Amino acid sequence: MRSSLIRFTCLLLLSALGSPAFAQKIVLISDINGSYGSTKYHSRVSAAVEEIVNLEPDLVISAGDMVAGQKQPMLDQEHLDQMWAAFNRVVANPLDEAGIDFIVTPGNHDGSAFEKFEIEQKRFQAQWNERLPDLSLLEGSDWPRRYALWLGNVLIITIDGTRPGRLQETDLNLLRATLEREGPKARSILVVSHLPMWPFAQGREKEIITDPALTALLAQHQVDFFISGHHHVYYPGTDYNGVGHLGVGALGGNARKIVGQSIREPFSFTVLEFCDSGLRISAKKAPGFSEDVPLTSLPMSIKGQTGSLQRLDLGEKHPAETCAQ
Predict the structure, then answer these.
(1) Of 30, 50, 178, 246, which is the most exposed, with the fewest CB atoms less than 10 Å away?
(2) 322 lies in some domain
(3) Above 90 in pLDDT, residue 10?
(4) Which residues lie closer than 8 Å to 19 by C-beta, 6 or more apart?
């Protein structure tokens, strides 16, 4: 059985040890949309995209909410087209022009799985049918709602996590089949959803996936990180099964407070840098995206229905190590 990569996780800033040689670099963005129906983006979204291009990552992953839908009265086709055209202009096209692969998972505001948002689901599908990634999708994939692919020796599986409660059976089946078939070959496994499994943000404690079958599956296959958006806060932690959970901060919408804190989290995007000895995680905060969100500014743990999520650098099972050259 593959040893969990988190056991070698490095969560430090660049230091006197020098710059490590990284094999893969992934940037995570989420929740970039503005207010309902908006066809414009805050200037920090453009600034973030510019900085992401400068970082030259191997892959950018969106954890959902790329446009501002999901409300009634429903937006018509023309308005949806205008929103996605703005997204392409500000985000997708610059990444494409820079030669950076970009993959997505649906969010509640751009591709909610609830039946009443069928028109937005279809528009989401049409948007991404025209932008297939230059990466081979694995068996059982249903781009762009749920699928799996390899980035080097990193296995990435995205699911439709747009509804709280239990995961849809279609997504659970894809996840189970892919982990059983491909998981043993992986150096690291990342699962991407919009909704998290832990209550990261105040006011969104009930907007999470609560599914014992999913919890057991992630632990059984030693998934390194369950990556999510929706709560608009950055938080890396380890659960009682040794599975990592990574909440990605927002670039649009409202900044939110982490549970147990009184100040709002900064807007940010997250960078995963894989090296021979492990993985370094950092969140680049607005406005300049040159400074990291300090881990010490985050709670030592977050309580959920089934226990506590411990901040990743404090976990006894996963001591932080250095991504040295």
Answers:
(1) 50
(2) no
(3) no
(4) 325
> What pLDDT band is residue 37 in, cutting at 50, 70 and 90?
confident
Show the tokens assigned to 121: 């689901």
Closest C-alpha among 52, 67, 132 to residue 98: 52
Structure tokens at 273: 């840098």
Is 104 within a domain?
Answer: yes
Cβ distance 302 to 260 under 8 Å?
yes
Domain membership of residue 71 (yes or no) is yes
What are 187's two structure tokens? 């150096």
- For residue 76, the tally of other CB atoms under 10 A from its CB is 9
User: With contact defined as beta carbons under 8 Å apart, do 107 and 229 qualify?
Assistant: yes
Pairing of strands 307-311, 301-304: antiparallel
Question: Strand pairing of 188-192 and 225-228?
Answer: parallel
Residue-wise pLDDT for 40-51, tens only, equals: 999 999 999 999
Domain extent at residue 234:
5-12+22-314
Residue 232 exposed, middle or buried by CB count within 10 Å (0-12, 13-18, 19+)? buried
> What is the distance between the alpha carbons of residues 193 and 215, in angstroms, rounded to a whole number?
14
Supply the pTM of this predicted model: 0.91
The pLDDT tens digits for 123-175 are: 999 999 999 999 999 999 999 999 999 999 999 999 999 999 999 999 999 99
271-300: b (≥16 Cβ within 10 Å) or e: bbbbbebbbbbbbbbbeebeebbebeebbe
pLDDT exceeds 90 at position 90: yes
Q: Is position 325 within any domain?
A: no
Domain count, the chain: 1
